[in-house]
Amino acid sequence: MTTAPDAWHSDRLDLGGYLARLGVPDRSASRAALDELHEQHVRTFTFDNIDVLLRQHPGVSLDAVQEKFVGRGRGGYCFEHSTILAAALDQLGYSVTRRLARVGDPARGAVSGRTRLVVEVALDGARLLCDPGFGLSILHPIALLDGLDEVQEGRRFLVSRVDDGGLAAWQLSRLRNGSWEVQHTTDALPARPSDVELGHHYTSTSPDSHFPRQDSSLPGRSVTGT
Q: 202-224, pLDDT tens digit by residue?
């Protein structure tokens, strides 16, 4: 069950302004339209934690995020990217569920908290992972199908259905140096606005989070091709 869109205040998004930033038209929901929107979002907005490093982050409410992204053409990190993308998809008529994920590879001892926000879209009988706010990740939505092996812009990704503490979950891995490296594991529970606020508070303020201590910024794909 998804959270009602109005709990996320999706109607507050200036959809026209957002689409104008991306340079894409307002089109009916379809896989082709979704692919274009996702790709142009990734190419347009940087992945960065600059405001966290400067200790001046405005928060991850939709109002704050769209002031940065739509108003100033700035980027941000996962909570911001997925917040504004999900709001746009809500307004465009897609079936959207926001979910939390754990970053890192459990097999390598990396078991993080649920401090990542991704977007799942149900479309034409398929479940699609949208992930615009993870550096060096997917350019287009990727289907949640166990064993799916897909190449996007020269990078190879693997989707795996796994058990995460008794709950079904999805892992997204990237082929790196000849072996699969888990990027994150998304659980089956729908996220709530309070989950996003708590996750952002931890990642932006905790001494155990790398974001307040390390520059994690990546330039947009349109500039570097990354």
A: 777 755 665 555 555 554 433 22
Residue 107's domain spans which residues? 5-213
Question: How far is Cα 46 from Cα 81, in angstroms, rounded to an integer?
Answer: 9
- Per the structure, the count of domains in the chain is 1
User: What DSSP line would sit under 87-119, residue for residue?
Assistant: HHHHHTT-EEEEEEEEES-GGGT----S-EEEE
From its phi and psi, is residue 72 left (phi > 0), alpha (psi between -120 and 50) or beta?
A: alpha
pLDDT in tens, 168-183: 999 999 999 999 999 9
Distance CA 133, CA 117 (A): 8
CATH number at residue 102: 3.30.2140.20
pTM above 0.90, yes or no: no
- CA 204, distance to chain mean position in Å, is 17
CA distance 30 to 141: 12
Q: Per the structure block, which two tokens stand in for 178?
A: 């000849």
For residue 32, give every residue at least 6 positions away whose Cβ sits within 8 Å of its Cβ, in sequence order, or none.
none
Q: Is the pLDDT of residue 1 over 50?
A: no
Q: Tell me which residue of 96, 99, 110, 51 sits closest to 77, measured CA to CA.
A: 51
**218 in a structural domain:** no
The runs of H, that is alpha helices, within the chain are: 15-22, 31-44, 50-53, 62-66, 72, 78-91, 193-205, 221-224
pLDDT of residue 201: 81
DSSP bridge pairs for 99: 118, 190
User: Do the domain assignments include residue 222?
Assistant: no
